[in-house]
Amino acid sequence: MSRDRRRVALITGASSGIGLELARVAAERGYDLVLVARREEALRALAAEIERDRGVSARVVPTDLARADGPDAVARALEDVPVDVLVNNAGFGLYGDFLDTDIDVEREMIAVNVAAPTVLAKAFAPQMVRRGRGRILNVASTAAFQPGPRMAVYYATKAYVLSFSIALSIELAGTGVTVTCLAPGPVRTPFRERARVSASRLFSGERGREPGAVARAGWDALERGRRLAIPGAWNRVGAATARAVPLGVAARVVAMLQPTEREPDDRTVHDS
């Protein structure tokens, strides 16, 4: 890392999709980077690109956040690094009826989507508060606003991220540290390609925004200290509608858009 105290942004799930684009935006805004994901080769390629094109430093910390010790390993690796921006982007989903899906995969999903952002916020928020400045960006989804049959655990994990983010932003008000929750709708990333969610109308065809546009919207919201960012007018309407109707009604709508396949197989959806 550079020693002239350029601002540092830590981004998880940086090897692809929204995380990769967030890394590019952060570098463009003059941040040194710490890039975290499972795929070391992809991280190193991104780090080389960013250092070449933007003239900032990019440190790679290959880590599997699904492991119980993964988030703690990241924190230990950065004990001497003053992190100014923490971006909890890593996450993945799983499509299929709950009775058919793999509980081991769901345990990993909870570890990555829920435990990792919680542990990393616990590790880095206190040092931000002590310095009197800092920003946290947690990436959720419009899935956070209603239950999601056929992706029950994934939707629930994103509801946690939304609730946790808003609550933490209230707790930290006045400290100089802000917390922003980015809740995109469908995005054209490897999340969808790996899903094999052929039955889902939410992921079919050309639906979805480009990850670069979503990343810029998220970073702009972070810089403004906004608590919630939902890119796209239709996504904002959908989120508002989901909050306005009874949970059972919202869940039944999702169930119609994500019908059952009843063919147990590997339908893991990774976006980091």
Descriptive report:
The chain is of the alpha/beta class. It has one domain (8-263): NAD(P)-binding Rossmann-like Domain (Rossmann fold). The protein has nine helices and nine strands. It has helices at residues 17-28, 40-54, 70-77, 103-131, 152-171, 190-193, 211-224, 233-244, 247-257, and strands spanning 8-12, 32-37, 58-62, 85-88, 92-94, 134-139, 177-182, 228-229, 268-270. The strands form two sheets. Strands 3-2-1-4-6-7-8 form a seven-stranded parallel β-sheet, with helices on both faces. A two-stranded antiparallel ribbon has the order 5-9. Strand 6, helix 5 (152-171) and strand 7 (177-182) form a beta-alpha-beta unit. Helix 1 packs across helix 7 (211-224) and helix 3 runs parallel beside helix 4 (103-131). The radius of gyration is 18 Å and the shape is globular.
Topology:
Elements: E1 8-12, H1 17-28, E2 32-37, H2 40-54, E3 58-62, H3 70-77, E4 85-88, E5 92-94, H4 103-131, E6 134-139, H5 152-171, E7 177-182, H6 190-193, H7 211-224, E8 228-229, H8 233-244, H9 247-257, E9 268-270
Parallel strand pairs: 1-2, 1-4, 2-3, 4-6, 6-7, 7-8
Antiparallel strand pairs: 5-9
Helix pairs in contact: 1-7, 3-4, 4-5
